[in-house]
Design brief:
The complex is a heterodimer of chains A (271) and B (347).
Chain A (H helix, E strand, L loop, with lengths): L1 E12 L2 E12 L3 E5 L6 H9 L6 E6 L2 E2 L6 H6 L2 E4 L11 H8 L8 H6 L3 H18 L17 H13 L5 E5 L7 H18 L2 E5 L3 H7 L2 E6 L2 E6 L1 H6 L1 H8 L4 H8 L1 H5 L1
Helix pairs in contact in A: 3-6
Chain B lengths: L9 H4 L6 H20 L2 H26 L7 H18 L4 H20 L7 H21 L1 H4 L5 E2 L3 E3 L2 E3 L2 H23 L2 H11 L1 H6 L4 H27 L1 E2 L6 H14 L4 H25 L6 H23 L3 H15 L5
Antiparallel strand pairs in B: 1-4, 2-3
Classes of the chains: A alpha/beta (271), B mainly alpha (347).
Bound molecules: adenosine-5'-diphosphate (ADP) and magnesium ion.
The site of adenosine-5'-diphosphate has 11 residues of chain A, from β2 and α1.
Chain lengths: 271, 347
């Protein structure tokens, strides 16, 4: 079954056609990856799904229900669509812990009056969230040593991890990750790949990811869609996509087919 | 040096005062606040009351501007709404002061929500202008709605009362003002360390990511306006009971700027900073006046020379803060604290 269904989506900014008649499906409980060169429209597609961009045409169905333009970003978040951004979008002055707790915002109830008095319901709720965040997320992502640090003081790789933590605190059904390992070193990439697989397997969350690192994409994706100039060229499992000549040509230009093949097949490169 | 603050439970870890030392200091502060009126002369008592009122209003504005990132030049207007509410209620009903002050806060909060409506669309200086317009409009209402506000002559009111007790002297008013100031600062602290406060800060830092986390921007911006003007309304109500006369001139635009300056000088987005800023802004002009008086015997011309200088010195102090300590008085305080926490093992 597909948890997300994109049908005939078109989006343009003035003359720029960011998405043209894009259709594809995200099967439930998979790691589905969108690849494509810069400017292909991947981030725009994420923004349509989150509700920041309003496509001129087409529909998005989530769990069988249409996400019409009347359903605004906060509502979509509450429905279980969480995401991270290509450029880290954490609250830099806040601590790691507060950033993650913010992810749980929609699952909490305390209002203004309750928080003013604090003792009683508001406090109980804060402690429940703290416990959940500590046990399920901070331990899992191995960030307990930095929980009290302001985000701005962390390395880039750790910030990406905190952003993932915040998205997890939203208890998502679909987790959208925009270039989760960009700018990371090898070790950080391996950690992130492991987390993504665990999130799918242990948490039962569907992961929809945009990523350029072909090694990682081929390793952990169940399903891949290729986007170029706003259009889906092909989709399928990693094996199919790797072999598709059109992908090789379109994705990386047609300058030097051999080296591109190597990029798409990291094992060969290592061998 | 502070040691041994490893926590056993999350409850202990999330408490406001995480060590006994901190509890001790807070207890000491309360004791000083309690003993102050018995030792202070009438002038100091008067200043103490003014600082208390300023602390409440500054804390409110800090929530809106410092923590939610919405600049407002309407704080004096909201205080006016609170002051007139108290004055009108005291003239037309026999309600005791806890009720009139609560209503003052609520009426001001309602007005604050209306004024905050444009904040979803406009930001920064544009919002400042929108709130400025609102405060001009409020001023107009204070002056013109004679049947309620008494027009330019304003309203005089009876002293605050409760259970047959009247609060006529500064000595008695001091206890009302300081109790409310302490409670309202603590309430603000509670809001800011829980869900609602985190949402405020999220909106200030990055509103797009706030939305992606499911935070409804309009709702929380209006909530911040409501809370901030509630504080202003209560402060204005206390102002009314303290001076026992309210006129349109009691809440000039310069007062809104005064509160914004208190937030900035103290340290935006820092409650302690707001308190220090409120005290600074209230006391420095007084200190400069005292200085003038002290100089007069030696330089008979001092008042003539100093009175325009006062404003200049005051302004220069504010500018100095912006340049040399952009994080305000709060940062200076933190430096002092760090020093003592590590003392004598400095590094
Ligand atoms: N807010 C916007 N305004 C104008 N053009 C945009 C906007 N967002 C994206 N685009 C354009 O849409 C195209 C696709 O961009 P994007 O979705 O960011 O690509 P990708 O994430 O695949 O690199 C680009 O040509 C980009 O310039
Ligand atoms: Mg992109």
């Amino acid at each position: 079954m597909s948890i997300l269904e994109i049908n005939n989506l078109s989006l343009s900014f003035g003359g720029v056609k960011a998405l043209q008649d894009v259709s594809f499906q995200v099967p439930e409980n998979t790691v589905t990856t969108i690849i494509g060169p810069n400017g292909a429209g991947k981030t725009s597609l994420f923004n349509c799904i989150s509700g920041f961009y309003k496509p001129q045409q087409g529909t998005i169905h989530y769990e069988g229900r249409e996400l019409s333009s009347g359903i605004k970003p906060p509502k979509r978040a509450a429905l279980g669509l969480a995401r991270t951004f290509q450029n880290i979008a954490l609250f830099r002055g806040m601590t790691v812990l507060d950033n993650i707790k913010l992810g749980a915002h929609v699952h909490m109830k305390s209002g203004l009056l309750g928080s003013m008095f604090y003792f009683g319901a508001a406090r109980r709720e804060e402690m429940e969230i703290r416990r959940e965040v500590e046990h399920r997320i901070i331990d899992f992502l191995e960030i307990d040593h930095i929980r009290r640090q302001p985000v701005a003081s962390l390395s880039y790789g750790l910030q990406k991890r905190v952003e993932l933590a915040r998205a997890l605190a939203m208890r998502p059904k679909v987790l959208m990750l925009d270039e989760p390992v960009a700018g990371m070193n090898r070790e950080e990439k391996e950690d992130m790949a492991r987390f993504i697989l665990d999130i799918r397997e242990e948490w039962g969350v569907t992961v929809l990811m945009v990523e350029h690192d072909m090694g990682m994409v081929m390793d952990i994706s169940d399903h891949i869609a290729v986007l170029n100039f706003g259009q889906v060229i092909t989709e399928g499992d990693p094996g199919d996509v790797q072999k598709n000549p059109e992908v090789i040509k379109a994705y990386l230009g047609n300058s030097d087919i051999d080296s591109l093949r190597k990029k798409l097949n990291p094992e060969e490169e290592a061998a | 040096m502070r040691i041994g603050d490893a926590k056993q439970t999350y409850e202990a870890d999330e408490a406001i005062w995480t060590s006994n030392t901190q509890k001790l200091w807070f207890g000491l502060l309360l004791l000083i606040l309690l003993l102050f009126p018995f030792m202070a002369d009438s002038y100091l008592l008067y200043l103490g009351c003014l600082v208390g009122i300023a602390v409440i209003s500054t804390t409110g504005l800090n929530i809106l501007t410092g923590f939610t990132g919405l600049i407002s030049l309407g704080q004096a207007g909201f205080m006016g709404v609170g002051a007139y509410t108290v004055a009108w209620l005291s003239l037309n009903t026999g309600l005791p002061f806890p009720v009139t002050l609560l209503l003052a806060g609520l009426v001001a909060a309602a007005v604050g929500i209306l004024v905050g409506l444009p904040s979803l669309r406009v930001k920064g200086l544009y919002l400042a202008i929108a709130t400025l317009a609102a405060s001009v409009f409020l001023h107009f209402i204070f002056a013109e709605w004679e049947s309620v506000t008494g027009g330019m002559g304003g309203l005089s009111l009876e002293p605050a009362h409760l259970f047959g007790l009247t609060f006529q002297s500064d000595f008695r008013m001091y206890f009302i003002i300081v109790t409310l100031a302490v409670l309202m600062v603590l309430a603000a602290r509670n809001v800011l360390r829980t869900r609602v406060g985190r949402a405020f800060i999220a909106i200030r830092d990055r509103d797009i990511s706030a939305e992606i986390l499911g935070i409804n921007l309009l709702r929380y911006k209006l909530m911040s306006f409501a809370l901030s003007s509630f504080y202003a309304g209560v402060a204005g109500g206390l102002f009314a009971y303290f001076y026992r006369v309210v006129t349109p001139e009691s809440f000039p635009l310069s007062m809104s700027i005064f509160y914004l300056a208190a937030v900035i000088v103290g340290g935006m987005g820092n409650l302690l900073g707001g308190i220090l800023g409120a005290a600074f802004m209230t006391l420095v002009p007084e200190a400069l006046k005292l200085l003038t008086a002290a100089l007069t015997p030696f330089y008979p011309n001092a008042p003539v020379f100093m009175s325009p200088m006062l404003e200049i010195i005051f302004g220069a102090l504010i500018v100095g803060f912006l340049i040399f300590e952009p994080h305000g008085l709060a940062e200076i305080w933190h430096r002092i604290r760090r020093f003592f926490r590590l003392w004598p093992f400095r590094n």
